[in-house]
Amino acid sequence: MEDIKVSIYCLAYNCADFFEKSIQGMLNQRVNFRYKIIVHDDASTDGTDDLIRKYAEQYPDKICSVLQTENQYSKGVDICKVYIEPKLEGKYVAICEGDDYWIDENKLQVQYDYMETHPECSLCTHNTEIRDLNTGKKRNFNNWKDIHILTEEEIFLKWSVHTSSYFVRRENEKWTGNYYMFGDYVMLTWAFYNGVVVCLPQMMSVYNFNNPNGLTKMNYDAGLMKKQKIERDRISYLNEFNEKTQYRYNNIIAKRCEIMDYGCLERECDYIILHSDSKEDVIKAAKKLTSHEYYSESLHTKKGIRRLIKKYRYEGYRFYPLWKIVMKVYLTNRL
Predict the structure, then answer these.
(1) Are 322 and 305 in contact (CB under 8 A)?
(2) Whole-angstrom Cα distance, residue 148 to residue 137?
(3) Which of 82, 270, 313, 335 lies 20 to 30 Å (CA to CA) from residue 121?
(4) Domain range annotation of the chain
């Protein structure tokens, strides 16, 4: 039989409401090459695993399933390295998580053809539609009308392309020796180092934002701590990346780390405002945040009334205790 050219991997967890649309988008691809789909379920509790079994039985020549009985993510297991990488085949790797889906049956063929004719391209992406499951609102991930080569700023400082659009050369899928939970960012930065990252203008996938099985207002504290850990880990990763690439992107990495350091400090301040009954501690936290080097610069990213609100969000401690009441309402509705 013809060799497999592309491996797709799909990470799934409690996405029964979305999975069938996701797997159908992968199965319905019109291509002139063979591809396989690797689906990993991390011990879902909502029946996602049953759906995976059903489709794996229907399409044994295309779907390879890995079904866990215990959640591996919570144990800190590198799922991609341990369970996905050994099953990858072919020249290219594509990604679609179980609560996202592809909306163009020609997606794989279009990206495959582009990569075959552009050997300098290490990662090919495309535009994605963001759908907010809370509000029903939709928007584009980016607004590029033509084929776009991503810049340093777009790679390190912005979020311009989504994981559901990734189509990477398999030789670049081994990224780093350490495990990081934000594997898409690791893949993006290493692909940028190894070649050119391109975004095609076609809208070919949907990213479902605010999955109800994700973080909610009821677990804001847990979300706060988790986000802070991710930011700290991302700083560690970028320092590792910086060293391994012989400081080629040192200036922009330093800028990114400064922004993330500010973000971590902001979350620490948020937590104190929410939970501390000490006026002294709350004001001290707010002052510490507003004295951060990035604070003043961040104000210039907003305009007019939005910048004014951002400024007094933390400087408004002069109007304590009304300020704290307003801040608590804002923070508890933030996620």
Answers:
(1) no
(2) 26
(3) 82
(4) 4-209, 217-332
Query: What's the fold here for domain 4-209?
Result: Spore Coat Polysaccharide Biosynthesis Protein SpsA; Chain A (3.90.550)
Token pair, residue 154, equals: 């777009």
> Taking a C-beta distance cutoff of 8 angstroms, is the pair 39, 65 a contact?
yes
Any idea what the Cα angle at residue 6 is, between residues 73 and 93, rounded to 5°?
Answer: 40
Q: Six-digit token pair at 106?
A: 């020609």
pTM for the complete prediction?
0.86
Count Cβ neighbours within 10 Å for each residue of 30-65 and write b for 16 or more, e otherwise: ebebebbbbbbbbbbeeebbebbeebbeeeeebbbb
CB atoms near residue 239 (< 10 Å): 13
Token readout for 47 is: 């029946």
Tens place of pLDDT for every residue, the chain, 335 residues?
579 999 999 999 999 999 999 999 999 999 999 999 999 999 999 999 999 999 999 999 999 999 999 999 888 888 988 999 999 999 999 999 999 999 999 999 999 999 999 999 999 999 999 998 888 899 999 999 999 999 999 999 999 999 999 999 988 755 545 566 678 899 999 999 999 999 999 999 999 987 766 433 334 556 666 777 888 889 999 999 999 999 999 999 999 999 899 888 888 888 898 889 999 999 999 999 888 888 877 776 656 677 777 777 888 888 898 999 888 888 877 64
Go through 68-80 and write b for each residue having 16 or more CB atoms within 10 A of its CB, e for each that does not: beeebeeeebbbb
Cβ contact 11:98 at 8 Å: yes
